[in-house]
Amino acid sequence: MRYGIGVDLGGTNIKIVAVSEEGQMLERSTCETQTDSPGFWVETIRQKIKEIEKTRAESARWIGLAAPGLAARDNLSIASMPGKLRGLEGLDWTDSLQTSHPVPVLNDAHAALLGEAWIGAAVGYRNVVLLTLGTGVGGALLAEGRLSKGHIGRAGHLGHISLNPDGPPDIVGTPGSLEQAIGNSTLTERSAGRFTSTRQLVEAYVNGDGKATDVWLRSVYNLAAGITSIINAVDPEVIIIGGGIAQAGSALFDPLERFLEKMEWRPQGHRVHIIPAALGDFAGTLGAAYYAMNCAVEN
After folding, report:
1. Is 68 helix (H, G, I), strand (E, B) or coil?
2. Does the pLDDT value for residue 297 go beyond 80?
3. Are both 80 and 134 inside the same structural domain?
4. What is the DSSP letter of 280?
5. To the nearest whole percent, how much of the chain has pLDDT over 70?
6. Are the C-beta atoms of residues 28 and 13 closer than 8 Å to each other?
7. How confident is the model at residue 299 (pLDDT cuts 50, 70, 90)?
8. What is the pLDDT of residues 73-114, one digit of tens each?
9. Cα–Cα distance for residue pair 132/158, rounded to 1 Å
10. Terminus-to-terminus CA distance in the chain, angstroms?
11. Angle (deg, nearest 10), helices 210-234 and 250-263
12. Looking only at Cα atoms, what is the longest distance across the chain?
């Protein structure tokens, strides 16, 4: 059986899957990233690939890699990743992994959307927005069935849209961004030091804590405002919400829907459906493998 390997290199974990051409997940593994250690990343991924190939008694036909940042125009490395994963920029993964065929590289949120479009929540849709809510806010766009990358790969970086032009700049310089409004990285500041994780915040909100309710509902209100702007800009059929914060379930989706009832422009009663992602933590790995399969077809 021909199969592909998808790798998702994140700031916290390296995730790897083996997957069939039909999208059946054959094997998967996770290990810690050890930030800013490119030698460790490369060797860990190389060894994991060898283990998979030994177990399956044949080499992977395709290998793809997803990571934060802007992919280079030749799709062989990450060209720009400000602020974290030092050593990632310019790292040629085909050369580093010593493979006999190119290892295409793409942005992690782009990969997650491709995974969802292949075998997840976006199956059957042609115009889709994905938002991944976690430490930061990632995003990706599917337009008429094709991943939208834009001119230099910035398309879909929806966490960096501005909600407050008078707010402080985020990691790319955007003032008052969506990422700052709901990302876990700013929660301590947004809650005046009371909460350090969104999970902790949501648990307190569900238990009726007044301070937690104020902080959480303000965060979700800001998310709704961002989603409304995105809807007006790109007119998707559906918006998929993924990432760790999406695990809040109804605590997120119920107030989000109430806010959107008031904000969203719904001509002739049309509304954009907001749905949870289906593939969980391995969406990016599956999308990376799918991307590699399709790059090989195109080439």
Report:
1. coil
2. no
3. no
4. G
5. 99
6. no
7. very low
8. 999 999 998 777 889 999 999 999 999 899 999 999 999 999
9. 10
10. 21
11. 50
12. 58
Rounded to whole angstroms, the Cα distance separating 288 from 107 reads 9
Per the listing, tokens 């580093």 go with 96
Sequential DSSP letters for 251-279: HHHHHHHHHHHHH---GGG---EEEE-SS
Query: Residue 6's pLDDT is what?
Result: 98
Residue 234 lies in a domain: yes
Query: In what order do the strands lie in the sheet containing 238-242?
Result: 146-147, 137-143, 128-133, 238-242, 273-276
Asked whether residue 119 is assigned to any structural domain, the reply reads no
203 shares its domain with 247: yes
pLDDT reported for residue 12: 84
pTM: predicted TM-score of the whole model, two decimal places: 0.93
Residue 174's CATH number: 3.30.420.40
Q: Which residues of 114-139 are buried (b: 16+ CB within 10 A; e: fewer)?
A: bbbbbbbbbeebebbbbbbbbbbbbb
Residues 138 and 85 in one domain: no
Both 250 and 131 in a single domain?
Answer: yes
Q: What total number of domains does the chain contain?
A: 2
The pLDDT of residue 258 is above 90: yes
Do 16 and 31 share a domain, yes or no? yes
Residue 117 covered by a domain? no
Tokens 């030091």 belong to residue = 193
Q: Look at residue 2 in the predicted model and tell me its pLDDT.
A: 95
The Cα 221–Cα 200 span in angstroms is 19
**How, if at all, do strands 62-67 and 3-9 pair?**
parallel
For the segment 268-280, the average pLDDT, to the nearest whole number, is 95
Q: Are residues 24 and 53 in the same domain?
A: yes
Which residue reads 């904000």 in tokens? 263
pLDDT, one tens digit per residue, over 135-159 is 899 999 999 999 999 999 999 999 9
How far, in Å, CA of 148 to CA of 150, rounded? Answer: 6
